[in-house]
Amino acid sequence: MGHPSDSRYRGETRQKSCGADHAEVFWKANRATYTGMWRDDRPHGKGTYVLPGENGFTYEGNFFEGDRNGSGICVFSDGRRYEGGWLKDNMHGMGILFGNEESDDFVDYTGPFANGKRRGQDGTCRYKNGSVYKGEWLDDKRHGRGELEVGKNASIPGYKPIPGESHVSSYVGTFVDDVPKGAGTLKYSDGSTYEGEIEGLHRHGKGVHRSSTGCVFKGSFECDRRHGPGVMIISGAEYRGEWHYGSLEGVVTITGDKIPRADPSLVYYCGPAVRGELTGDNAVIEYREGYSYRGSVRMSKPHGKGVLLKKPVTLPEIGDFILQYDGEFVAGLPKGSGEGVFLAANPDTDLLSEESPLEPRGFLPKYNFSGRYKGSWTDGLPNGKGQWIWDQIDRTYCGDVLRGFPHGEGTLTCSSVSYTGSFVKGLPNGTGKASWTVGASVENTYEGGWKEGYFDGEGLLKLHGGYSYKGQWSKGLVDGLGTEIVPYERTYTGKFSQGNKHGEGKLCLIRSGEVYEGNFISGEMTGSGKMTTREGHILKGEFINGKMGGDGEAIHKNGTVFQGKYRNGAAFGTGRILYAHGDVYEGGIVSSGDLIPHRDGPGVYMFFEGGKLECTWKRNVLVGEGLYTSSNGIRSRRSYTEGILDFDELIDKVDPATSGDLSDAVSKHLSTDTNTSESADISAVGIKICRSLPSRKACHGNVSLAACGSPNTGSLPFGGVKPAPPACVEKQFVPLPQIQIQTPRRDGEASLADPYPIGQVKVRNADQGSPSFSPKSPSAPFLFPGPRMSGTNFSLERDALVRTSASTMRNDSLRPLSPPLCLDPRVASSSGQRFPALSGSVVRNSGTPDHREHEIRRLTESLQNVNDRIWTAKTARSATWSSADPVTPEKKPDPDSLQTLQQERRTALQDLASLM
């Protein structure tokens, strides 16, 4: 390995020497570098030499007098890598050469080297195509005796297997100049073997080929093909004749149980052969199944005119038959024009296919009967246009035929069913119309899509009873979107699945007038849905088998909403009721048998104006102790018994600075609002009439719904829009200090009113009268005549004794959906269930008292209402008299109105006493 003289040298110096033990050298001419041991101005010993360029390399190993010598590793610039022995700058001895991944066809070579080339015995080379060679080498080529394992699907230069035949997997024999040649043994990927003369991995010359299937050929080969005289034995069948490049030629005789080179069922053939195929006229063929053929053949099969006798055939999905055919053949099978007789091997005597279609809807005719077919043939079976006649079962078909089946457009006529339309494999498929009779003359029809004999796709079914369905079908069952009409009963539009309503849909019940929109599962209203009743009520939420179950929402037509949980159609547990007037109840509930459940158990009633009552209810009736918090934060402890307020105890008092002497005046009026005779009447019937603050219904007749003529629009809800002022007295509002009054309530509903109202009122003229009150109409919705006022918008300095009209309207609005304590027996419903989606176990009048008790409660409620109105009138009069601004006699409340109310109370007391 020579080096240019113009080099840089850096290293150790030794006395009386021109070199050093270790050096770093750079040759400017070829830009080579060396780092390592150095002696006599040359690399000597261990070192690393790097030569850049196209023919460069990097060598790391032993050097001797400037040459690579000994053992070392060299990486060439062409991508090769060598690890092994070196001699005089050449690969020599045992080593490993790794090929270039892009340009070389081998991965690595392990074995002997000589003068830089692979040479010697027992060299092993692994190729990229997966092949492995082990044997003798000469000048980088396989030469001599060797073994080659061929990779799967490997491409070998000079070798190309015959299409359809197996690939060589190994070769053991001689190699000449890198090519297999001479005597040897070949093994193939399918297990076949060949022993004989070989050239380039091809069979060439005399030899014996044994296939893995047992086929043996003894004779001559040329380029892997049988060529010349020979005998081939295949599974006991013997072929005798002349081969020409792999094919039989001339007259041949074939005998044996199996003849793979011909029809597999052929057991005897005597006739012509052309290019390996049994082709010609006047051939005689016998088949294993016992039938025979006389006539023209092509490729060992009947072709042209001929006669087929006693051939067993199978019509797929029909049955087995014995065919006798006279006509044209193509490729071994009847094809073209001909006539055949099918004799059923196992005739089917079951004629149920002739009956009317049943569920699932469809028409499945059977064909396992002897019959005659005349028309077009293909593939050995009736195909094309033709006519079938089944005399045995009185059936005919005329139309398109495929493989013996009616297929395409046609008409099939049976004893009771007629179908015209598309067929696939003998079954209605596509579009068509079927008509069938039930009884003497009643006809049912279906027209639309079919699949495999069943209604499928879009279709219209009409039954003699008037029932109809139009929509999607699947395998004879309604499936997908559709509309079902049952006369006088129901209509449904939506999704179906396997014959049942399933998925989103709309069900209209004609008789009850109810409409359900939502999810169905297996025909039942199950899942998320919405039920609208004839009256306009709405149920939304989760349904289970037609009843509410889980989270749900009930919306009354008047706007009241219940939100909570249902089980088996009945509301239970806790829930939320949002009344149309703005009040909200949250707490325990129990099914009422009607749309809106009863308040039952602990709960919180929140008033629109800001007040809140925390108490316990039992079917809408207040019971036990509770806590009331007014809109201005004043709290009182209350106790109820069957809706009657037993006591009302103030917990938090207002600031004494805001109180005046009016409390005493009002208390005085309250103590003298009844005469002794009325007290005696009350005592006689044993009923405690408890005074209370005016309920909404009581205030409605004596207090205006809004502050008439007030310039303060800030107290008006909904943007401060002022309603038209009612006929009011011209007296201005009177600021009154807040007072504390403990007054019992008459029932659960009246007790919901704020006991400490804050607001401004005007006294209604006496001639305006009071609104009528009828406990017999609890379901009539309350109509608000104008915007409501919230008393909480007024300051404490202008507190008034009487609650604003917002309280009045709120309490009235509770009544439509809350069953009253006193039910008119004429109104009490029967035990029938009002809402199908609600539980039927609780009827609307369950737990109601008898008629006498109804009357007692009604009179008690009426009496309490009159008391509230009397109290309101007296409170308003007291407030007016105590005003700093003197009130003229013309502006005082009409005393006749108060007297009228007192007389009304006496009448109620007398009726109650007589009833008791």
From TrEMBL:
Keywords: Repeat. Pfam families: MORN (PF02493). Signal peptide: none annotated. The keyword Repeat applies. The keyword Acetylation does not apply. Residues 832-852, 877-901 are annotated as: Disordered. It comes from the Eukaryota. InterPro entries: MORN. This is MORN repeat. It comes from Trypanosoma brucei gambiense (strain MHOM/CI/86/DAL972). The lineage of its organism: Eukaryota, Discoba, Euglenozoa, Kinetoplastea, Metakinetoplastina.
